[in-house]
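Why this split exists: single-chain examples teach little about how molecules sit against one another. For that reason, every record in the complexes split bundles all components of an assembly together and asks for one structure covering all of them. Below is a record exactly as it appears in the raw files.
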Amino acid sequence: MGFFSKFRKKSPWILHYNTGGCNGCDIEILATLAPKYDIERFGALNRGNPKQADILLVTGPVTKNCRDVLRRLYLEMPEPKVVVAMGACGHGGGVFRHLYNVENGVDNIIPVDVWIPGCAPNPRALIDGIVEAINIWEKKSKDKEYMKNHSKDMIKNLGVNDD
Amino acid sequence: MGNKIVVPFGSQHIALPEPVSFLFDTKNEIITDVRVDVGYVHRGIEKAAITKFEFTNVAYLLTRICGFCSITHAGGYHHGIEKLLDVEAPKRAEYIRLIITELDRIHSHMLANAHVAEVAGYENLFMQGVKDREIVMDLLENITGNRIQYDIYTIGGVRRDISKETAEYIKKQLNKLKDKVLKVYDFYDTDYTFGLKTKGISYISYDDAKKYNVVGPIARASGLATDARAEFDYLPYDELGFEVQTRTEGDVWARNIVRQMEVVHSIDLILRAIDNLPEGDIKVKYKGRPKGETFVRVEAPRGECFYYLKGNGTKVLERVRVRVPTYSNIPILKELFVGEKYSDAQPIVLSFDPCMSCTAR
């Protein structure tokens, strides 16, 4: 295991952004940070700064006003990063699908790695999703660190040309 | 003198669960002007309610206006549509509706108070509040099957009954919760440092509250006794001895105390409702299509919520208009910032317990 991967996996920091959902998911995120479910035992903290974040936790169907903010937050996060879409309306809009001010889901704007279904998802489902996201993130981290005999396609897939 | 600096607060911020943007013009850390943009959450729900959904299904959309007040929106819609269809829900269903509504209010108020404590610098108190709140969430999951979006209302009654075992469980857990709430209440009431951070901040006088048409716990903290539960007859609050809770201080501290008093009072109401739960059906059948117009006032955790419904005898309603509490609280919120320190901006915003997904819809 590489030097950075070893320490990285102990502190996956979360950036949370609501893109116009009903804030039910956001309540569950607050509940998951609190003692009963306690996401902090995986080292995950909710920090409001995209420059220090590793996991982008997106809720909501992405309204037209939030679209550019979401894209900018994603681009400001350092590699490697993982995107988690939470809640039914993140998956293609849910009950808000095809309303006039809605972009029908998170993956129309940014690539998504983990989906957490439910309206609103239970905190247990959220923890499951975050653990899955940490695994993907660890894998991405390792892939990036051993770039010695890489192919050009692989670099393109990882999106690290400009690093 | 110092330079003028613009400090952005939102739309993405650690203290905000929802996107809303404040731009503060500050001079020597004193706020001189503020610009608010609440439109980030606009989805077009009112339009969709009259074009895409039938009147039997539109409640699923309307409850998803907001996660905190989902039961309020369900209540507003169903009480209105029952008036149009001339259906009356059975007594037992009304009591179950009341129990869920008050449980929802408890968890919303507890989270709001905890949030104010967190941004005032008391992270431990936040954790304490949210930990106690889990008792309520467990009860809601037990009764309705879901933690946030309950969808227990249906036209002419409720979907699920409360069994004897569940009733006993609710009573036991609520008595446990009451002790914990009173302990935290005591802290809010007497703690010296918490008072330094919150007392006298963003004072609203009785006259201002009346002039700006403030609603909810914010109005009640200024001595304005306005509460749709007492003024409008939609659930059997009178039978259970509901009282309006007021304070006269009108600052961040008083708003927290009013919410805490309401939590204690809601627990009492639920315990009385469980003891007096009538026997009978939980649902009646209805027929026909909604015709005519009506309005409903219900009390959300944040204040009075107004529903206007108009049907024309078809499956799809002609007009659904929602006026939510946060909308009427924003004008005074803007006035309050001027003259306060920037470091107090976050407690002021969160003491209003703003619900942006309600406001912009």
